Amino acid sequence: MINTSSNKNILKLIKYGPITVVVLFSAVMIMLLIKENKAALERDIVRLSNNAISQQRLLLKNQIDALSSHTSFEKNTATEQLQNDIRERVLEAHAIAMGIYRSNQSLPKLEIGIRIKDALRNVRFLEGRGYFFATSLDGVSELLPIQPDLEGTSITDMVDVKGTKIVKDMVALMKERDETFYHWWFQKPDSDTRPYFKVGFLKRFEPLDWYLGTGEYLVDFETQLQNTMLARLQLNRSNLTFDYFIVNDDLNYISHNDPVMIGQVTTSEIFHVKQRHSLFLDGEFIDSSHSYIDDNGLLTGKITYARHNPDWHWTLVGSIDLEAVNQYFVDHKRDLELKNEETLLKILLLSTVLSLMLVAVCFVISRNTAKRFKRYEAKILRHVNQLNDNKEQLRFLANHDPLTKLRNRRELESSIESDITLCLESDTQLAVMFFDLDDFKKINDHYGHATGDRLLSVLGESFSELLGPKDNVFRFGGDEFIFCFPLLIDYEHAKEKVLAIQQVFSREIDIFNNKLHVNGSIGISMYPHDGLEASELIRKADLVLYKSKAQQKGQFLFYEQSLHLELERALLIETKLRTALVNNELSLVYQPQICATSCQIMGVEALIRWHNSELGFIAPDEFIKVAENVGLIDSIGDFVMEQACHDIALYNNNNASPIAVSINVSPAQLINEDFVAKVCAITKKHQLANAYVTIEITENVLISEMERSRAVIEKLRDRGFDVSLDDFGTGYSSLSYLTQLSISELKIDRSFIMKCLSSEQSLSLVRSIILIAQSGHMSTVAEGVETIEQYDKLRELGCDIIQGYYFSKPLPFIQLCEQYAPEIESAVFSESDAL
Fold this sequence. Notes:
By secondary structure, the chain is an alpha/beta fold. 51% of the residues lie in helices and 19% in strands. The protein is built from 25 helices and 27 strands. An 8-stranded mixed beta barrel has the order 19-20-22-23-24-25-26-27, surrounded by 4 helices. A 6-stranded mixed β-sheet has the order 11-13-14-12-17-18, with helices on both faces. A hairpin with a 4-residue loop joins β1 (133-136) and β2.
């Protein structure tokens, strides 16, 4: 806590310190504000001048660019304008000719033609350059005002400067069209020897089989357009806000504010030879780096902008005198200065008022500081106490599960070590019980995780109620709990604890109005019999829990050394099985299936064998279950399917009496969504007909996955496969399976065959199975037939197929061929050598 002397010093500091700081701060802020206000005014004036110059530059650029764009437009549309103009003239001439023809139809065509020529001969347009000509469709000139001596003669051989017979082309076009444009190259009269592009328009005059036309040099028309445009620009100068002039490539003025200057050579420095060839195409300001502000802060000088137009080889130069906009600049500058002064006064006034208010507030605060300080001191003390409480809560949460409030695994081993010490001192035993809730995932999936969490919380409360003074229960994780019961006398004492745990599940548990029936499996290790350290006891309890759940859920199991060896062997089998396929340790043998009446081989059952260099021979019943648990059954099943179909296809391809093969399929394989497609692909690959493949399934798959199994069986039957129900009668057989499924074969389990001669009950069961199969049009296969008496009895009962050691043990494929098809033995050996 803060001592009394420190409290007084703090109070003085709070009382006078803020007032002193406020006064100093206000003085500094006022000085800074005055300085910033002055700098802001200077920046605003510079910005104002720059804006004024930028506006004038933009205005000048936009207007000069607009003039240049208009010039380009006139140039680019000159041909189109000329075509429209001459077409309109020819159409007028055609209308005149048609009017004359219609008014004088009673006259001979020759006389009509003379009248039309007289009417059009002296017509001129395009500033006197334009005239009409008329030519007959056989190439005779009818009207040619500039060369009347050619009228009445054939001019089909007339060519332009490029050697094109233009009249011949015109006649050909007029025979195909009613009107058309035509272009040619001619020397201009009274001009240099250069060829010029000429645009013409022709219109057919059908009454006399003529065509009327006219033409104009494009360069003359463009010159006319230029003159018209320059005259229009000269008239519009008074409407512009800037001055400009235009020069041509010879640096002669063609447009100027002073008409006297037009035609004279410019002496402007901006037309330096180097500049003329490098700038103006995109437009450029001349002397743009020049300062436009004089010593008095006023605008001065001119802004000059030039742009070259390559279409008509004009250079447009515009300029704006900045002194003309000085008044605008001065007015706005004065407005800025006035606003700046007003702003400064407001800031000073506001700063002073705020400073006084802050001083007053600080004074009031200082009077209340002592009282508040006392309250804060008390509050700090409460917070310190609360922080200590929070630390205790965090320490609890660090060592306890927040859901069940049970201790978590953090202190599990240390607690067990303490219990071991207690048992060692009292010569008693310790039971470590690893508990796992059965099918907890199904509860979460069906009712939701909120229900699952609540169930764990309720179980945590129930488990806590079972504990004695020295007992402990921990939530290990998920749905797993570990009980520690020290001071036990013997195993029976431990069993009493187990029964107490199981009693929790003897009644239904109500969770959110859901009546849940749950159970759990328990694995138990005992100190000192099963281990002397906590980690060892936990590990062995976990191992035995795994075994307990595998045998039957909801039960408990004590750790035993034999069980440990069994689990270690299962783990070793799992490890070796993962590499069995890669190391070629798996193989197939085939047990013949013999017709009961003819004693001929009808098929074989493919059986898998595994021989490992370390483990030796491992029975299928031992490793198939491991393969299903660890997810290897699909790859092993694919191997069996591939090898069996390969061998039987080889057998059938070299044998006049083909046989079928029965292949066992695990439930996990059968319900795989691509199982049918995979089997069909394998039989197609080995060219084995589907009818020679029988898929053997067990009753377990029908119980757990009835709907999915039925769909797969239907697909198999639709594709020609047979389906056999293996070990019929040993499980939860139901006649309803046979009515719902397309089963083609029933296999009678060997346990019934072994007892059928000594047990009337077994004999009756065998007889019933055969009758059931016959009534359902299914065949029967008897497994495990070892004596002639068994064979005779089964044949008497009507069994179809016999399989067992009486006829043959399971044989490798080569021995199968040697015994039943020696004629294909050489083919089999040849393929084996090739492989």
